[in-house]
Design brief:
Distance between the termini of chain B: 54 Å
Order of helices and strands of chain A: HHHHHH
Oligomer: heterodimer
Radius of gyration of chain A: 18 Å
Order of helices and strands of chain B: HH
Shape of chain A: elongated
Largest interface: A-B, 24 and 17 residues
Structural class of chain B: mainly alpha
Number of helices of chain B: 2
Largest sheet of chain A: none
Number of strands of chain A: 0
Number of helices of chain A: 6
Distance between the termini of chain A: 28 Å
Chain lengths: ~160, ~50
């Protein structure tokens, strides 16, 4: 029995829950909370103690999720990414997850470093970084909806696609 | 001439509307609705063209 897919699927789910769970935390909890906290001067606690820890798990969970997903696809990796017949649904999910991974490491994390003061930046650069990071994060939240639809189906997908 | 004026006014209204259009990703509901619409579009593409 090949144990690689068994552990790859398990790890893919564990890391994926961590990644998307933190993504939803940022969008549904932290961003609105920061607005309220800025009004009464308590935002420092969140930006200093909470956000850096959440971002640490968020960005590394994204990597682990993608790698475990790639291991799970195994020899079907190319079939999925080329949307070959029978692999289009999981392929779309894989592409959406890959775009989201790029957003995390290419847009969200570099801009969050400026916002949180981990990287030197002027006020103007910080304001621009806030906008880019917010839109990238919201884009990932939007993409997570179809991504989970295409990824999370097993037998139910066959019915959904008339197979 | 009236027709031209009417077309110019319609164009101006359209221009103003475009300029005030908001990004759906600025709100959580806009983000969720965009995600659901994207899901439906991708589902139809996959079902009809890629399966």
């Amino acid at each position: 029995m090949d144990l690689v897919p068994v552990f790859a699927r398990w790890l893919h789910f564990l890391a994926g829950i961590m990644w998307i769970g933190l993504l939803y935390y940022f969008n549904f909890v932290q961003v609105p909370a920061l607005k309220a906290a800025a009004a009464d001067g308590t935002a420092g606690g969140i930006t200093k103690h909470v956000a850096p820890r959440a971002l640490l798990y968020f960005r590394w969970a994204a990597i682990v999720t993608w790698l475990a997903g790639a291991a799970l696809l195994g020899s079907n990796f190319v079939n999925a990414f080329t949307l070959s017949k029978g692999y289009a649904a999981i392929g779309i999910g894989a592409w959406l997850g890959t775009i989201m991974l790029f957003n995390v490491w290419g847009l969200i994390w570099p801009n969050q470093q400026k916002i949180l003061g981990l990287k030197p930046a002027t006020d103007e650069e910080k304001n621009k970084a806030r906008r880019v990071a917010l839109l990238a994060s919201r884009t990932n939240t939007m993409l997570s909806i179809p991504m989970l639809f295409f990824m999370a189906g097993g037998l139910t997908h066959k019915a959904a696609f008339g197979l | 001439l009236q027709l031209l004026e009417w077309r110019a006014a319609t164009f101006q209204r359209g221009k103003t509307r475009r300029m005030t259009m908001k990004n759906p990703l600025d709100s959580l509901w806009g983000t969720i609705i965009s995600g659901l619409v994207l899901t439906a579009v991708l589902y139809l593409v996959v079902k009809n063209f890629l399966m």
